[in-house]
């Protein structure tokens, strides 16, 4: 398991998301004081959810064709996406937000 430092807690206001440059690119979200992480690329086509998406509660909306995903589970909740996003564990340590991914 690899850990990547995604951002500082203060970089991510509640209701927002950030792209994390790694392979694969990840997205980190903060909703209701909790942190979540998923793959950043929409499963419909190649599009960054964190760079060009919008948050609506626990859902991220892809701005290209308006698919939605639940950031807690990765589940695709609106068409045209039918495949969910990978999700990843998040750890908060002090002011640092870490994502665990890979083997
Ligand atoms: S690329 Fe995301 S909905 Fe089409």
From TrEMBL:
SUPFAM superfamilies: ISP domain. It comes from Sporichthya brevicatena. It comes from the Bacteria. This is Bifunctional 3-phenylpropionate/cinnamic acid dioxygenase ferredoxin subunit. Residues 4-99 form the Rieske domain. The lineage of its organism: Bacteria, Bacillati, Actinomycetota, Actinomycetes, Sporichthyales. Gene3D superfamilies: Rieske [2Fe-2S] iron-sulphur domain (2.102.10.10). GO terms for molecular function: dioxygenase activity; hydrolase activity. It holds the Pfam family Rieske. Keywords: 2Fe-2S, Dioxygenase, Hydrolase, Iron, Iron-sulfur, Metal-binding, Oxidoreductase. The keyword Nucleotide-binding does not apply.
